[in-house]
Amino acid sequence: MADRYPIPAALHRVEQTIKRSRFMASLGHAPDMDTARAFVAAIKEEFPDATHNCWAFNAGPPGDTACVGLSDDGEPSGTAGKPMLSVLLHSGVGEIAVVVTRWFGGTKLGTGGLVRAYGGLVNLGLETLPLRDMVVTRRLDVSLPYPSVTLFKRMLPDFEADVVEEAFSDVAGFTVELPEERVGAFTLAVGELTGGRAEIHEK
Hints:
By secondary structure, the chain is α+β, with helices and mostly antiparallel strands. It has two domains: 4-133, Impact, N-terminal domain (Ribosomal Protein S5, domain 2); 136-202, Alpha-Beta Plaits, CATH 3.30.70. It has helices at residues 33-46, 81-89, 110-127, 149-155, 183-193; strands spanning 4-8, 12-18, 21-29, 52-58, 68-71, 96-103, 131-135, 137-144, 162-168, 172-179, 199-202. Strands 2-3-6-4-5 form a five-stranded antiparallel β-sheet, with helices on both faces. α2 runs parallel beside α3. The two termini are 20 Å apart.
């Protein structure tokens, strides 16, 4: 699994009218399947007057198919959920759910037209979706001599490390959280700083 990848930063919506039918895509963050299903349920509740609320989600890293779901919600089989999920899985964005809400305007689009409409709405939403990084972190317990504390605290921002807990006895103890990809370099740096006198254990 990647140490960091883009995920939705906020609920995002785009709209399009296709042959008098109104389509609206709602995209949001879905770190797990329960959150994804709750997101879908909330959109359905918000737009009870819609003809269809078709949806798809990938509640894992980009392109991962372990935690996915989809629904055509009454549209012909394979014309909505499947193209929507396909776009999500190829988007490079992880932990994402999307609901495309349709208000039927009286003109049928045909199966090809529906596939293009639903997939196209997801693509349109992704173009302007605000993103942030999902960072895989680890927690370490660090014990070090008191003379090293000031320099230790000064180096933490270089490794995107945050102090979660502090405990002081005969040595200074810290629990720090930092990106997994920086653990190796951080451990080496602390060892050099303390002349090998620091003790580091994973939580």
